[in-house]
Amino acid sequence: MSEARTVIVLAAGKGTRMKSSLPKVLMPMLGRTLLGHVLEAAHPLQADQTMVVIGHEAEKMKQHLAQVAPYAQTATQEQQLGTGHAVRVAMDSAPEASGTVVVLYGDTPLLRAETLSAFMSAHESSGNTATVLSAVVDDPTGLGRILRDSEGAVTGIVEHRDASADELAINEINSGMYAFDAASLRQTLGMLKGNNDQGEEYLTDVLGLLHQAGKRIGTFHAPEVEDTYGCNDRAQMADLQAIMQGRINTEVMRSGVTLDDPSSTWIDVTVRVEPDVTIRPGVQLRGDTVIGAHSEIGPDSTLIDTSVGAEASVTRAHCVSARIDDECQVGPFAYLRPGTVLAQRAKAGTYVELKNSLVEAGAKVPHLSYVGDTDIGPDANVGAGTIVANYDGVDKHRTKIGEAVFVGSNSVLIAPVSIADGSYVAAGSAIASDVEAGELAVARGRQHNASGWVSKRRSGTKTDRAARNAAKD
Ligand code: UD1
Ligand code: CA
After folding, report:
1. Best substitution site from 83, 136, 217, 219 to test ligand 1's pocket, by max atoms within 8 Å of Cβ?
2. pLDDT for 194
3. How far is Cα 170 from Cα 163, in angstroms, rounded to an integer?
4. Is residue 364 a contact partner of residue 378, using CB atoms and an 8 Å limit?
5. What residue owns the CA closest to ligand 1's atom 33?
6. Which residue of 63, 276, 288, 378 is surrounded by the most CB atoms within 10 Å?
7. What are the pLDDT digits (tens) for 334-376?
8. 3 has pLDDT over 90
9. Would you place residue 1 in the very low, low, confident or very high pLDDT band (cuts 50, 70, 90)?
10. pLDDT tens, 246-291?
11. CA dihedral in degrees (94, 97, 103, 106; nearest 10)?
12. What average pLDDT score do residues 457-463 get?
C-alpha cells in the first residue's frame, strides 16, 4: 500500500428517532449491529488506524467495539456540536494520521466493501484533495446538495435546511462519506464556524473552504445508491433490512441453495449454507449457524448458533446453540436448547425438547419428551412421553441411558440415574434407581381387575349395557 489510510466512523449520536434505550448504531440487523456492518465494509481498506467517534452511551459502545473490532480506537465527543466537530475530535486524537482520511457514518449498514474500495481507488488515483461519495436520487429531501460551478467543478455542499430554492432543486446529494487528504482536512477543520441554521460545525463546510483555497474536489457516484442509505427510525431500518435480506438471499441462491420463498427467509450475514441445501418458507438462520450440503431446513424453523451436518432435516424446529450431525431428523415441532448434540442419524422428533444432552449415533427420541442433562447411547430408543426429571428443585443432575437401551413409553427417569447398555425400562415406569445391563426394570403399580365391578357400581349405564351384551355373545 502506497499511502497511509485512516478511517473515521461517526457514531456519537443517540439516534433519538429510534426511540430505543440502545444507541442507534448498536441496533442489530441480520447478524451485526449497524456499526458492525460499516466496520466490516471498511475492514478490507486495511487502514493504519480506525477511529470511531463515540459520545452517547460511550461504555456500551466501547464494549461492543472490543468485541467486533478490537483494532478500532475511540475518540469521545462529549457534546454533539456537529459532524465537523466530530471529525476534529477524531483528528485530534490521531495526530499522526497522514495520507488519506475516509469519513463514514455508523448508521449506513448497506455500505459494501466493493463500493468503498472503488471509492478509495478513485480518490487515490485522482489527485483530489477531497472526494465525496455522491448519488443522484429522485427525492433528495433532507440531504446535503452538491454545488457545482458552470464548468461542473464541485464548489461545496449546502445542507437542505440552509439551501435556497434553486439549490433545493439539485438532486445530486452528499452521502456523507468522504475521502480527504489528511493534512488539508486537519488544517481546514480548524476554520469551521457554526454559522448555519443548526449552529453546528458542519463537516460539509470543509469542502467549500477547500474549494476557496483552490483545492480540487471530486465526486464518486455510488454504483448502487442503497450503499449510502442511512436510517433514522425503525421504519427506515426495516426498509434497509429488506434490502440486505435480498442481497444475502441472492448470494445464497447463486451459491447453489434453494430458497422456496426468499421473502420469508432471513439469513444473517454470518451464516454459512452449503450447496444443495433446500430452505422452506419461514426460516431464520442466525448467528454462527452452518448448514451442511443436501440438508433440508423448514418450513418455519429458527436456528441460532446451530450447526447442521449434511443430509439432515429440520422441520418446524427452534434450535439454539445445538449441534445436529449428518442425516439427523429434527421435528416437526422440536426445541433443541443449548448444549444439545445429535450425533449421526439421531432423531429428535415431534414435541420433543432437549437440553444439554448428547444423543449418540442412531438413537431416537421420537415423540413428546423432555430430555435434559442426559447422555443417550447409540441406537437407544426413548419411548413416547418419556420425561427426564433432571431438576430436584435445587440442583440439576445427569442421567445416562446406555447403548441400545429401550425406554418404554411414558416413563419418568429421575436423575441422577443410570440405565446401563442393553437394558429395558417397562412403559409407565418411574425409574429412580440404576438399571444394570440386560435387565428389565418395571417400576409401576401391578394391574388388578375387579370382576363384576360395572354391574355392581354402574348398573343401568350404557357401559353396563355394553358389558351385558358382551357377556351374551
Ligand atoms: C449529513 C450531512 C449531509 C448528508 C447526510 C447524509 C453534514 C452537516 N451533513 O447530514 O450533507 O447529506 O449526512 O446522510 O454533515 N454525528 C456525530 N457528532 C455530531 C454530529 C453528528 O457523531 O456532533 C454523527 C451522527 O451520530 C450521525 C452522523 O454523524 O451518525 C450524521 O450526523 P447528522 O447530524 O445526522 O447529519 P445529517 O443531518 O444526516
Ligand atoms: Ca443523519
Report:
1. 83
2. 87
3. 10
4. no
5. 83
6. 378
7. 999 999 999 999 999 999 999 999 999 999 999 999 999 999 9
8. no
9. very low
10. 999 999 999 999 999 999 999 999 999 999 999 999 999 999 999 9
11. -40
12. 98
Beta bridge partners of 324: 308, 342
Question: Residue 132: nearest ligand to its CA?
Answer: 1
Query: What would you report as the CA-atom Rg of the chain, rounded to the nearest whole angstrom?
Result: 32
83 ligand 1 Cβ < 6 A: yes
Calpha distance 427→446 (Å, rounded): 12
Q: Which ligand is nearest to the CA of 13?
A: 1
Query: How far is 194 from 202, CA to CA, in rounded Å?
Result: 7
> 64: which 3 cell numbers?
461492543
CA 25 to ligand 1: nearest atom: 30
Q: Which ligand is nearest the CA of 75, by number? A: 1
Average confidence (pLDDT) over 237-242: 98
Distance 83 CA to ligand 1 centre (A): 5
* Residue 242 pLDDT > 50: yes
Residue 197: pLDDT band by 50, 70, 90 thresholds?
Answer: confident
Rounded CA separation 362/342 (Å): 9
In whole angstroms, give the CA distance from residue 405 to residue 423. 5
pTM greater than the 0.85 cutoff: yes
Angstrom CA distances, 286 to 242, 328, 354, stand at 16, 20, 19
The span from the CA of 17 to the CA of 353, in Å, is: 40
91 contact partners, CB below 8 Å, separation of at least 6: 8, 97, 101, 182, 185, 186, 189
Dihedral (CA of 439, 443, 449, 454) sign: negative
Task: Please give the Cα distance from 347 to 86 (Å, whole number).
Answer: 56
The x, y and z cell numbers of residue 229, run together, are 442509505
Please give the Cα distance from 338 to 321 (Å, whole number).
Answer: 5
Ligand 1 proximity of 202 Cβ (cutoff 6 Å) = yes
What is the band of 195 on the pLDDT scale with cuts at 50, 70, 90? confident
Ligand 1 atom at minimum distance from 173 CA: 12
Mean pLDDT of the 118-134 span: 96
Spatial CA neighbour of 411 closest among 379, 380, 449: 380
Alpha carbon 71 to its chain centroid, in Å, reads: 22
% of the chain at pLDDT higher than 70 = 100
Residue 301 in contact with ligand 1 by CB distance below 6 A: no
Cβ atoms of 364 and 352 closer than 8 Å: no
Length of the chain: 473
> Does 89 sit in the ligand 1 pocket, CB within 6 Å?
no
Q: Confirm or reject: Cβ of 176 under 6 Å from ligand 1.
A: yes
Question: What residues act catalytically?
Answer: 367
